[in-house]
Design a protein that fits this description.
The protein has 14 helices and 16 strands. The chain is of the alpha+beta class. The strands form 4 sheets. The chain has a 6-stranded antiparallel β-sheet, with helices on both faces. The N and C termini lie far apart (59 Å).
Length: 455
């Protein structure tokens, strides 16, 4: 029995530790700094640690005036809604009312190749239906109300962009079709089903972004180039539907993150199915499940999705094994304030990626003018002349401490070396680093080049 208990304890995942007072103060500092730097009017943040809501705070001007920011203010979360649409279909599948492997033709027979496309492929973006809203702005038609069926008639009855399952391409169109399937199978309006079967059981206060927002909620803002921040005009009714029509405060959406962590509402197999990476017919992975992106960061499993609406951006990142989550909502559709804040909190929760930490150490040595030549190959040591070292020290040392140091994408192989890229951010300046190294553990570095970024 003692051995069994010990094994269970050793197998239990380590929960992310609660935020310290210093970390809370750092979140406050980062949020204020990022809003001031980008011009984004407001941010609302929630952080889950150890399976509970640990931190929630709102900053800035949610309504564009001098009224104080509140945690109750709701923000449209746009495409973050997709995971809930997928969950609705998973609930219906649990009840035997449909199968994710049913052909779409069983429910929407007049769509292009509906007999060859499955419900699952609507949810994992491999259907081939062309995205009806790929732009990052509101194109002219968005000013006129639309019905879900009209979206499908225009975009899902056109020729496919590719054969179903052969490629991955983000498609809001597929989720509009998924929402209509929910309505057909459940026999009730899409939002009514979500409220009854998902939000009420979880105690979540979520509204329809088209109809449920009030003057007390966050208002949308935009910006053209480096011009003034201006109020944004929301899209006309109907354009969001099951692809992104939900609005909530971050602390309320955290209840959904906690349901994922605790495996509540859906069965454990259904949660696992949503988080399982879809694969293409050729065998390649997509890093996407059913309405969620799925990957690892610093060795930790991460389930995440962002949202982009007119005047709003949002980010949810859940680390199920760590029983942690980060949610950042902003009322602007420009810049990357939400992503930068989320990156900083993520690093607090998970610690540094060991490979990123190693690259950061090399960078620090160069900006101090003291490179550890034992870490480099003969080629790079020859390139690293006294003049090169001096230029690094004088140009980089003057910048002070970077705001962030982040890996860009996965490590790849080229010419017998691993190839990686990193981005280093300072106030008003961004650098990129190209790192190439021998592939074996502890391999020497063949290249560590620092460039000014174009952004």
């Amino acid at each position: 029995m003692i051995r069994l208990v010990l094994c269970l304890l050793l197998a239990a995942p380590a929960a992310a530790a609660p935020l310290t007072p210093a970390q809370r103060a750092e979140i406050d500092r980062v949020a204020a700094q990022v809003l001031a730097k980008t011009g984004v009017p407001s941010a609302s943040i929630a952080v889950v640690t150890d399976g509970r809501l640990d931190y929630a705070r709102a900053y800035g001007r949610q309504r564009g005036d001098a009224s104080p920011a509140t945690l109750a203010a709701r923000y449209p979360v746009a495409s973050m809604s997709k995971q809930v649409t997928a969950a609705a279909l998973l609930l219906l599948a649990e009840e035997g009312k449909l199968s994710l492997d049913d052909p779409v033709a069983r429910y929407l027979p007049d769509l292009t190749d509906a007999d060859r496309i499955t419900v699952r492929q609507l949810l994992d973006h491999t259907s081939g239906y062309r995205d009806y809203w790929p732009q990052n702005y509101a194109f002219a038609d968005i000013a006129r109300p639309v019905a879900p069926r009209q979206i499908l008639d225009r975009w899902a009855r056109a020729p496919l962009d590719f054969a179903a399952g052969s490629q991955w391409q983000y498609s809001n169109t597929g989720f509009v079709a998924a929402g209509l399937i929910v309505e057909k199978v459940a026999g009730e309006p899409f939002m009514a089903f979500l409220q009854r079967r998902i939000f009420a059981p979880l105690g979540m206060q979520v509204v329809d972004a088209d109809l449920g927002l009030t003057p007390a909620d966050a208002r949308p803002f935009t910006r053209f180039a480096l011009g003034p921040v201006r109020p944004a005009t929301p899209p006309a009714l109907g354009w969001l539907f099951a692809a992104g029509q939900l609005a909530a405060a971050p602390a309320e959406w955290a209840k959904w993150s906690l349901a994922r962590i605790d495996r509540r509402l859906l069965t454990t197999p259904s949660w696992a199915e949503q988080e399982r990476e879809a694969t293409l017919t050729g065998g390649a992975g997509t890093r996407y499940g059913l309405g969620v992106f799925t990957d690892t960061v610093a060795g930790h499993k991460r389930i995440h999705h962002g949202g982009a609406a007119v005047g709003f951006l949002s980010e949810e990142r859940v680390y199920p094994d760590d029983r942690a989550a980060v949610l950042v909502f902003v009322n602007a559709d420009f810049g990357d304030a939400h992503g930068v804040i989320a990156d900083r909190i993520e690093a607090m929760l998970l610690g540094s990626d060991p490979d990123t930490a190693a690259a950061r150490a090399l960078f620090d040595q160069l900006r101090q003018g003291r490179p550890d030549r034992s870490r480099y190959t003969a080629n790079f040591n020859a390139w690293l002349t006294p003049q090169v070292v001096t230029d690094h020290r004088e140009s980089l040392g003057a910048l002070g401490e970077p705001e962030s140091f982040t890996r860009l994408g996965p490590r790849r192989l080229r010419g017998g070396f691993t190839a990686e890229r990193f981005v280093v951010r300072y106030p008003g300046r961004t650098l990129t680093i190209s790192l190439r190294a021998e592939p074996q553990p502890g391999g020497r570095v063949e290249e560590f080049l620092v460039y000014p970024a174009a952004e």
